[in-house]
Amino acid sequence: MRPTAPGGFMRGPLKNDVFDLTRFANRMNPCAGTAVQQEIRKRLLKGKARMSDKGKEGGVAAVSEGPEWEQDGEIARYRQILAREPSSVVFAPLSEAYRKRGMLSQAIEICIRGLAHHPNLLSGRVALARALYDAGDIVKARQEAETVIKSAPENLAALRLLASICRDQGDREGLRRTLGAIVCLDPSDQEAQDELQAIGPDGEASGAGASGAGSAGCGREIVTRTLAEIYATQGYYERAIEILRKLRILEPADESLRRRIEELRLKAAARLSRGKPRNEGRN
Fold first, then answer.
1. Which residue did the predictor score with more confidence, 79 or 61?
2. Strand, coil or helix: what is 120?
């Protein structure tokens, strides 16, 4: 049986070290039992002290510690990684783990610290937005969600959170636009489709007679135009033009589509004349 740490279990990066030490000692002297356990205990205590010092330097120790995380293997594992490498991106899943357990202050704090190292990590921004939302700070949560969407209009996690925020704030127009983008990106989201249809094209609730094939077709057009405008707003003109051109094939008589495509082509050409075009590759 493997030797264990003083608490009756092994954990963290010291686990393999302890096992290797025991295996080596037993090979050298099968009767070394007590001496081996004493050496293991020394190694564990020394390692824990070293990790604690590194955690304080990286700011990890400032996050509240206690039985909540010490008894939670997932949180403990993430914290150990962060203690060894304070700039690790593991802060994002750690924040999510805190949030799911109702430890919202820890979730927010660890995200703020992590984003200081990785301000452009979208998963970290989404984690912070979710924690802020659960904590009741809807205004800041919306700011974070919109920051993510500006950088990545296809981020469904941020879009779904923004939809919840718009719903809570009574922002029907914002909810309509956001649901439109969600349905376009994920046509299998029937709940979003139903809600979008209920809201209607102008942000007002539709009547019962609005259902049917005609309404569904109108809803798809709204969704597609919404995503195109999101791309255009962020400067992804070619993506927006591609979507609108496909839509125009279905609606050849719609002059507004033709005009919008021409506007975006002019903007794309103007940017190209000023210098290097924006990279619109999908990562």
1. 79
2. coil
